[in-house]
Amino acid sequence: MIVFIGIVIVLFIVGLAFVSKNVAPTDKVKAIAQALAKAEGFYVPGSVPQRAHNPGDLKLGDVGNGDISGKTIFLTDEDGWNALYHQINLMVSGESEFYDPSMSWRDIASIWVGTTDANNWMLNVTNSLKVLPDSTLGDYVNAV
Q1: Which of 16, 28, 70, 71 is deepest in the core (most CB within 10 A)?
Q2: Count of other CB atoms within 10 angstroms of residue 127
Q3: Domain residue spans of the chain
């Protein structure tokens, strides 16, 4: 009986972990994802993000499909979008290891891109979202 209860508890916890990773994205999260995908070149035929089914050009290691230049290859575009939504949800909730809602788009760009091209990336994202570069992720998510 105790083993059965233990198994039920473990299954419940695993189920909660699965659900938390697959939270339906809000319209704001989707808009951020679209802006990031555009800035990363996902819509450019033959680009690394497009070939890797990775709209955010995420570096999550090999999830079973290899990588291209260190960028994770997802099996489908849907898998890539879900990974990006998950990353953005972590960012807006303050649960990300690298980003938090108080960061400006300029700050996010310097970490996300990490190169001299961060300014162009930031301008692409902020122009898509119609926000100022020094406004914060939290400002955007919490705006009515």
Answers
A1: 71
A2: 13
A3: 26-142
